[in-house]
Amino acid sequence: MLGSTHGTFTTDPRRAHVVACGELPPSAVHGSALTADDLDVSGRPLHADVPDLDRFFRPESVAVIGASDAEGRPHAGITRQLIAWAERVGARLHPVHPTRHSVFGIPCSPSVADLPEQVDLAVLLVADPLPVIEQLAEAKVRFAVAFASGFAETGAEGAAAQARLAAAVHGSGLRLLGPNTNLNAFEKFRDDLEGPAIALITQSGHQGRPVFTLQELGIRLSHWAPTGNEADLETSDFLSYFAERPEVGAIACYVEGLKDGRAFLLAADRAARQGVPVVAVKVGRTETGARTAASHTGKLTGADAVVDAAMRQFGVIRVDGLDELQDTSALLARARRPSAEGVAVYSISGGTGAHFSDLATEAGLTLPTLSAAKQAELHQWIPEYLNVANPVDNGGHPVGDWRGRRIIDAILDDPQVGVVICPITGPFPPMSDKLAQDLVDAAEETDKLVCVVWGSPVGTEDAYRRTLLGSSRVATFRTFANCITAVRAYLDHHRFTTGYRSPFDEAPRTPSPSFRKAQALMRPGEQLSEHAAKQLLRAYGIRVPREQLVTSAAAAVRAAGLVGYPVVMKASGARIAHKTELGLVKIGLTSASQVRDAYRELTDIARYEDVPLDGVLVCQMVERGVEMVVGVTQDPLFGPTVTVGLGGVLVEVLRDVAVRVPPFGEDQAKAMLHDLRGRALLEGVRGAPPADVDALVEVVLRVERLALELSGSLAELDINPLMVLPRGQGAVALDAFAVCR
Hints:
Blueprint: H1 13-20, H2 54-57, E1 61-65, H3 74-89, E2 92-96, E3 102-103, E4 106-107, E5 121-124, H4 130-138, E6 143-146, H5 156-169, E7 175-177, E8 197-202, H6 209-212, E9 221-226, H7 235-243, E10 248-255, H8 261-274, E11 278-282, H9 287-297, H10 304-313, E12 316-319, H11 322-334, E13 342-347, H12 350-362, H13 372-378, E14 392-393, H14 403-412, E15 417-424, H15 431-444, E16 449-454, H16 462-468, E17 474-477, H17 480-497, H18 503-506, H19 513-519, E18 527-528, H20 530-539, E19 547-550, H21 553-563, E20 567-572, E21 585-589, H22 592-608, E22 615-620, E23 626-635, E24 639-646, H23 650-653, E25 657-660, H24 666-675, H25 680-683, H26 693-709, E26 714-724, E27 731-733, E28 736-740
């Protein structure tokens, strides 16, 4: 099970093969005994391990190794904070120091071996935690925290030191947080707040501060896991644990790099199964950001397009800034499930309503036109000349009396409306005060989401500080953009988790008959010829043109007669990557003489370019259709990934592609096509007929199965172009390129 380093492992032949090939990270081969039902066809786990972290966050006893009360020294301040934290959680604290009899009046043990009882958690205030790990393991300590820096974040030498630390922890029964972590897990959390809480995971402690300070606005936080360099415990461990906690309403993450992509997706899958939203800032969208993150945590940041696609695939809501992280997490933690997806915008200014509605619609929110009956109802209190179709403009004056609440209730009562957003661009007492109070009162009596954007740059107004922030039912924002981002995430999350079916539950456990045929074609460490690559596709039921591989001009003429004119001829060899650039493709050949001449020309060019051939392909010519590309690559974080996009020369010019991480089903294959900017080509443009999208989806799913089953032996696969024929006629792989591992 991923993320665990304890217990025994029952060897499975498929799993042993995959580990030997380097497919699985070391963390994946530890944990309790696994059976074939726990593994997919490539031998990778299908379920997230959920570590028991109760005794980490709520220990009964704590040891502080290197404790000090020497004033002015950093360790004294840390020790004092840990003593206060232990008192808050009801833990007994034991200082450990070889030369002190007591620390802050608490009796001090000279070593770990001399502790008066077995402890749940040890906090290491030492520069080199490695010598202490063995002592802690012998004392059967369950958890340790290493603050020390100078490990993987510093380069190769530090990475080697971190590997030694991880090896010492491995199999010891001890779980380690850090190194290069901090005191965030031991912060003082407010215990006077109610409702669902946010659990926070960060690889940089300072970046979690904006979310932590949400407590000052009345939003509850339950945990903070500062994972640091993740030599052992990692983001996915805490993600799985928090997803199972009943008090957690949302999980907020700041991620610089992922230690294990598969473990992260399994943890995200567990959160999706539980319906717990995960909101993440992931550093590394740019080369500079990725490089800086790697220097900070020593992690792989991963190709950002793959990271982004994998997160969306498993329901992780990725946001760009810490302000979005705090606002989106706060909304998702506290808002109830929507009864409808329609958004109604209500304001005291027509300009404000129109502006907000434009932004919301552009972001993909649905603003339904209110029914004629509903508009007539609203016009009882709003002048006839004002628009109430949505957005609803009340003109200002009705909010100052009894009509204001009637309007809000009427909008909330509309069955199309699941969210009401009221942008208040600035304080305008007494109207803004009365409007804020009416919104709060209405929110208390409805299950629907009520959002307010308080646009004042001051933020000290009573209507904001007391009325709006004092409500646990109104979601209050300071900017239009953050409100729209959060509401879109809220609706997307509940749409995603409604009826959620984990792709891991549907993942194949045993190899298909296609796998056995394909394995015979693989050549470790080599590139396959086009002919061999197409045989690989055939093994998985992917259609290729009628074609024959020939080694003479006479055989080429006979093959052309069997394939049927016109034909395409191509040089075929394992070392040929770009046939067109070398002139090794001839198209539209319609006679025997053209075929003979083409054969001689292709072999002459190959001889001149010193490109060895296994023959020349004589292929059926397929002209009418949409050129697509479907491929497989190996991502260092997530393993095999599947790509689909516009093919032919467009793939290099437009780079219009979508990515998914197997396993996935038909819904995700269709979603990949929806993600493409050029998807209109598949629908038929300029008189062209609609393409056979169903056939394209089927090819993507067959390639996904191929990617899973051959993950240990296939490095790369490109089908380009895949010609998608008109609807009902299928799709044909005109060219293929494959590299074995």
